[in-house]
Specification:
With 183 residues, the chain is an alpha+beta fold. Helices cover 52% and strands 12% of the residues. The chain has 2 domains: 97 residues; 43 residues. It has a two-stranded antiparallel ribbon. The radius of gyration is 19 Å and the shape is globular.
Length: 183
């Protein structure tokens, strides 16, 4: 899946559930973090593995639970963003790296057509296959482009609300940057 969808889908879900808007927005880039394993030539392995997606965030959650209770929500959001990335990439992930580079995959497909009535076809394929080196990925896929167009249309229709939301996001980012550079 492309980075735009990895960023937008979990963020929109958190915003729809009315989880802390400020934290959801500021931590959203973590949803793209697992794709940086491509820099090591092992895309969908190093940062898509059990250690970086489960062990490290669970360690953060435990640390927050026993040492810094005020960090609990950010730790849970980090876990959510990391896990959402792997779930969206389940077309092939080396989840048990470094023990094995075999890729686990889960590929459900639901197709429908209108030839001779309304017909649905369900197909599920899952299992393990050898590691496939990934060369490149789309930055914006057809689905992400469609989602961005849909969001643009919604923003045009609900322009007052959209302007207020953009203003709020800019304020959140500005406040974060001011606090970060003040020390």
């Amino acid at each position: 899946m492309d980075p735009v969808m990895h960023l937008l889908l979990p963020l929109l879900l958190l915003l729809a559930l009315r989880i802390d808007t400020r934290l959801s927005l500021l931590l959203a880039p973590i949803a793209i973090l697992p794709d940086f394993d491509a820099a090591f030539g092992l895309h969908r392995a190093v940062f898509h593995s059990f250690f970086s997606v489960v062990a490290v965030p669970v360690g953060q959650i435990l640390y927050a639970r026993y040492r810094r209770p005020d960090w609990m929500l950010p730790a849970l959001l980090v876990q959510f963003y990391m896990a959402s990335h792997v779930v969206l990439d389940l077309g092939g992930v080396a989840f048990l790296w470094p023990f094995t580079t075999d890729m686990f995959y889960f590929d459900p497909q639901l197709k429908f057509n209108l030839q001779g009535g309304i017909n649905f076809e369900w197909h599920l394929e899952m299992g393990i296959h050898e590691y496939v080196k990934m060369g490149e990925t789309d930055f914006i896929s057809e689905a992400a482009f469609g989602l961005l167009i849909l969001m643009g249309l919604a923003a045009a229709i609900y322009r007052r609300e959209a302007f207020a939301a953009v203003k709020r996001v800019v304020g959140i980012v500005r406040d974060f940057l001011v606090r970060a550079f003040r020390g």
